[in-house]
Amino acid sequence: MTVTIGALSVGPIAARAVSTPGAVVRLHSVFPSTVNLAIEGSAVLVALTGPTGTGFPHAVALEQAVSFPGLSIAVGDCGLVSAHGILIQGQRGSLRATLDHASRLPARVLPPIVQRAGAWQACVRWLEDFQSRVSCDLRIGALLAGSASSTSLGALFQRSARALAQASVEEKSCGAGLPSAVSSLVGAGQGLTPSGDDFLSGFMAASRTSGSPLLAPALATAILENVAATGDISASLLRCAAEAFWPDPLLDLADAIAAENTSAALRALKNLCGLGHSSGADVASGFLFGLASLLKELA
């Protein structure tokens, strides 16, 4: 039996991956509300997910939520990209996602941020409280204050994050410590997207929005050289960040901080921290700490 579902939207990096009819698709991983697809010619996994996936650059968001484990498809099943969508052919059934009426979402660009002011400060206070409540290993308050972490993993993150900040400042004048600092963070932590990777993604965004002509490409290169040290799903998201693709909540946060709109910034931060148990919070830490490091002289 073939289950056919229409797509609501296609993120900009997902659109690139599904642009070649005849490209082979392999089902990489299955989760309750999302499957990840490895598509021939794409270094980034494409997430096939429900309507809430709209706003993720690597996602094909379907018109309705789907319980993927209930479908007759399994990891390793293959299929094809066609002019009209994606077909995954399993041994007992198949899934077709049609793209004919899906919106192709444009790539969003980070705004320039030239100083840290009230919106940034309010976000730091809110994030510090949130990370305390959910017991994150990586804490924005300890990072900014230079205080000790309550966990050994947190202490490792703090050393690596501060080394990254120092190397990034030096990179503005062609310093050489960035690759080592990045390699200490890639794959650090547990889960599908380790905290070190999420932090790097946020820091990468800060490097672009702060306007350093040398830092962003150097940081992207160092990340891409180290992605083999982490899992496939997290490596895919790091590749997105290296190419300047981030989820909407992070972009909304950057827009609000640039506009000095505190209420919008806090709203975006809460949405970002709703991603995963601590993944969104770790991305936020990387972004806010990155701004603190790179815009220090303008604070």
Structure description:
Strands 1-5-4-3-2-6-7-8 form an eight-stranded mixed β-barrel. The protein has helices at residues 12-17, 118-133, 140-145, 152-171, 178-185, 195-209, 215-224, 232-242, 248-258, 262-273, 279-294, and strands spanning 2-10, 24-30, 34-39, 46-49, 59-62, 78-81, 85-89, 94-98, 103-104. It is of the alpha/beta class and 299 residues long. The protein folds into two domains: 2-104, no CATH class; 118-298, no CATH class. It starts with a strand and ends in a 5-residue tail after the last helix. Helix 6 packs antiparallel against helix 7, helix 6 packs parallel to helix 8 (232-242) and helix 6 runs parallel beside helix 11.
Key phrases:
299 residues, alpha/beta, 2 domains, eight-stranded mixed β-barrel
Q: Strand-and-helix sequence, N→C?
A: EHEEEEEEEEHHHHHHHHHH
Helix content: 40-55%
Radius of gyration based on Cα positions: 19 Å
The separation of the N and C termini measures 60 Å
Main sheet properties: 8 strands, mixed, barrel
Mean pLDDT: 90
Shape: elongated
